[in-house]
Amino acid sequence: MYLQHFGLRHAPLGKDALELWDDGSLAHLKERFNWLLQSPGVGLLTGEPGVGKTAALRSLTAGLNPHRYQVLYQAETDFGRFDIYRGLARALGVEPSYRRAQLWRDIKQRVHEMVDSKQLTPIWIIDEAQNLPVEFFRDFPSFLNFAFDSRDLMTVWLIGHSQLSQTLERAPYAALASRIQVRLQLKAVLERERFALLIDHALRRAGCQHTLMSDSGLEILRQASKGLPRQAGRIVCTAMRLAVPKGLNHLPDELLVQAVGELQ
Q1: What is the CATH T-level fold of the domain 189-263, as seen in this structure?
Q2: Most buried among 14, 137, 216, 252, by the most CB within 10 A?
């Protein structure tokens, strides 16, 4: 109801937003993303929860040619390493074996067929990668060993919280760290000017034609959200819902404060 009330096409900063705000960081990510399309390897994307990591990669993969790339997205990571590979096998259309050695062979055979026979490159995106079991980090380099380690056939993106980068710097995971070709971190939009541009872009792309909040309200939103787009979007949408029964077509400061309280 609040979308109709405010004349919006979708929730600001919501998952339906097609055009993400970018002041350079996403363009940098796109460049590195294309690197790994041209030369398959491992990429690491980290950042605080709600900063927009998954949304950024979802946007980048949306325009890929399905005849050249197959995107395999996996977010169920809080399981054993065997379950992770079984999930990959299913995504590739392979019946998962109950023996890990056979499972690896079957997956690798399917990847070889995709690349050599269909000219189709698999892109495996592992979200919430900070939850992966440590055993996965240790044996993943072995899994990526194709043809006597002479070929790189898969592009893999590990997406996780900031501590994931620190985890992979530890000695037991040196083999995996050495295979990471791209390391990027998305940061919260903390600067006032940049945050104002983010919110303005989100509201306009959603269809808002007028100013919704004052400068002081924008500052309330910035501080409460800590510069995280997802949290800012939740606060704005909650405030809009609170505004509807009051018949308001803007978001007064006190309504934003109430919205923040509702979400705490």
Answers
A1: Helicase, Ruva Protein; domain 3 (1.10.8)
A2: 137
What is the phi/psi pair of residue 123, to 5°? -120, 110
Number of H helices, E strands in the chain: 12, 5
Do 39-185 and 189-263 share a fold? no
Task: Please say if the pLDDT value at position 148 is more than 70.
Answer: no
β partners of residue 158: 44, 126
Residue 110, exposed/middle/buried by CB under 10 A (0-12, 13-18, 19+)?
middle
Q: Domain locations in the chain?
A: 39-185, 189-263
Name the average pLDDT for the chain: 94
pLDDT tier for residue 15 given thresholds of 50, 70 and 90: confident
Q: What is the pLDDT of residues 19-43, one digit of tens each?
A: 899 988 899 999 999 999 999 999 9
Model pTM? 0.93
258 near 241, Cβ under 8 Å? no
Closest C-alpha among 25, 127, 10 to residue 77: 127
Structure tokens at 69: 């790339």
Architecture of domain 39-185: 3-Layer(aba) Sandwich (3.40)
When pLDDT is averaged across residues 96-108 and rounded to a whole number, the result is: 93
Whether the per-residue pLDDT at 47 is higher than 90: the answer is: yes
What 16-23 contacts at long range (C-beta under 8 Å, 24+ apart), as own/partner pairs, is 17/55, 17/202, 17/205, 17/206, 18/59, 18/205, 19/205, 20/52, 20/55, 20/56, 20/59, 21/197, 21/198, 21/201, 21/202, 21/229, 23/194, 23/197
Task: Write down the pLDDT at residue 202.
Answer: 95
